[in-house]
Design goal:
The protein is α/β, with parallel strands linked by helices. The chain folds into three domains: about 220 residues, Spore Coat Polysaccharide Biosynthesis Protein SpsA, Chain A; about 55 residues; about 110 residues, Rossmann fold (3-Layer(aba) Sandwich). About 40% of the residues lie in helices and about 20% in strands. The chain is built from 18 helices and 15 strands. The strands form three sheets. The protein has a six-stranded mixed β-sheet, with helices on both faces. Helix 1 runs parallel beside helix 2 and helix 13 runs antiparallel to helix 16. The longest helix is centred in the middle third of the chain and has 15 residues. The termini are far apart. The N terminus is likely disordered.
């Protein structure tokens, strides 16, 4: 509910939908934008040179004068977003990917939060959920279950903790004058680059409401654009170089913990020079005076997840999330026994130095193993653990608070650094 006074005004919000060959999902995105309970919205659909025989254009033109439709030469998502920003008439910008959709109160709740804050330029972020196009499963984020609100809203914490989704945010137009527009040289990670610039040094508002749905499907740019992995490594390497130790401690609390988390992330994208650079920075860090005590506290908390029964740690999921969890564990002197995975092609392979086995081997482990489910969507995997009767398992997100407050084993870094 928006209160009287300053909050009684009704600023215009511009919802910008960039699209390229997206006729299959575009209608749902537009309908969700038109269905907002905040009535003072304009919808700009920017067709980034689609070459699908006019299907994308036809899907957009079905909405006639209910939207503002533009067609431009193909230049990438960043160029389409900039095109829309330069033509928007609203005071606020909200990005909607053509394959995602908003819940009806997305804009109203975010505008209400901004206006009630007394700061018209306040940045907003919110919870969201993933929708798996193949299975139909929805998985909500629960960031407030794992992080304190003060962490989430502190500068670039949520950007570099990989939790802020660009389409769940609301941005006052003045910020583009402050930091510039999207970098059109980036093909896949223009959102992280922009949101780093927008949120750096700023406090933001975080809403506990799920306001936006992220559709996961096989045609997404992260799956189809060849340079995605390389571009991601380079971008994160650049962003990490921009942060000195003082800023890292102010935002993340501990330089080593942050650099370890980023090293694991970069390693999951192939490593390379960027990983070597971050690990060299870790090598230069001194050990903390209370490292041994805090390491024992970490091991104790990890053991408590199996009531002290498990004798080994197994990671369920040998993809990117599994590799990140493995790095988090090994940098605290916990060596996972092996990966398990449902992908038969990985069975019997050594992945990042440890064996990958079928999930069914866990049936013989029973109370011997603590299983860490390391996937983006852990719902199905957790159900599989229940079906197999595995008593001790934990989803990776629930370990994040433990990792964030547990220092790296810097006194013994030669044991785990590459």
């Amino acid at each position: 509910m928006i209160t009287a006074g300053i909050n009684s005004r009704k600023p215009l919000v511009s919802i910008v939908i960039p699209v390229y060959n997206g006729a299959n999902y575009l209608r749902q995105a537009i309908e969700s934008a038109l269905g907002q309970t905040w009535e003072n919205c304009e919808i700009l659909v920017v067709n980034d040179g689609s070459d699908d025989g006019g299907d994308t254009e036809q899907a957009a033109l079905e909405f006639k004068d209910r939207i503002r439709y533009f067609r431009k030469e193909n230049g990438g998502v960043a160029s389409a977003l900039n095109y829309g920003i330069q033509r928007m008439q609203g005071e606020y910008f909200s990005w909607l990917s053509h394959d995602d959709w908003y819940y009806p109160d997305k804009i109203e709740k975010e505008i209400g939060a901004v206006l009630n804050s007394g700061n018209p330029a306040a940045l907003v972020q919110a919870e969201y959920e993933f929708y798996d196009q193949d299975t139909g499963f929805k998985t909500q984020t629960h960031f407030l279950d794992y992080y304190e609100e003060g962490q989430i809203t502190n500068s670039v914490f949520s950007v570099l903790q990989l939790q802020l989704h660009a389409c769940s945010a609301l941005i006052h137009k003045s910020h583009f004058a402050r930091v510039g527009l999207f970098d059109e040289n980036l093909q896949t990670i223009q959102d992280i680059d922009m949101w780093f610039r927008l949120f750096r040094g700023q406090d933001s508002i975080f809403l506990p409401n799920v306001l936006h749905v992220v559709r996961e499907h096989r045609q997404a740019g992260s799956c189809t654009i060849p340079c995605y992995y390389e571009e991601t490594r380079k971008e994160y390497g650049k962003l990490i170089r921009m942060l000195d130790d003082q800023e890292i401690r102010r935002v993340f609390g501990d330089t080593g913990v942050f650099l370890g988390r980023m090293a694991g992330f970069i390693k999951s994208y192939g490593g390379g020079r960027e990983l070597a650079e971050v690990e060299e920075r870790i090598r230069r860090l001194p050990a903390l005076e209370d490292e041994e005590y805090r390491a024992e506290e970490f091991w104790g908390r990890l053991a408590a997840l199996s009531k002290g029964q498990a004798r080994k740690v197994v990671i369920f999921g040998s993809g990117q999330y599994g590799i990140r969890v493995k790095y988090d564990l090994e940098s605290r002197l916990v060596k996972p026994a092996y990966f398990v995975d449902n992908n038969r092609k990985k069975h019997g392979q050594m992945i990042d130095g440890i064996l990958c086995s079928p999930v069914e081997v866990l049936a013989d482990e029973q109370e011997e193993a603590l299983v860490i489910v390391a996937m983006r969507n852990c719902r199905e995997a957790s159900a599989q653990m229940e079906k197999l009767g595995i008593p001790y398992y934990v989803e990776r997100q629930k370990l994040d608070p433990l990792f964030l407050r547990s220092p790296l084993a810097l006194s013994r870094k030669d044991l785990w650094l590459g």
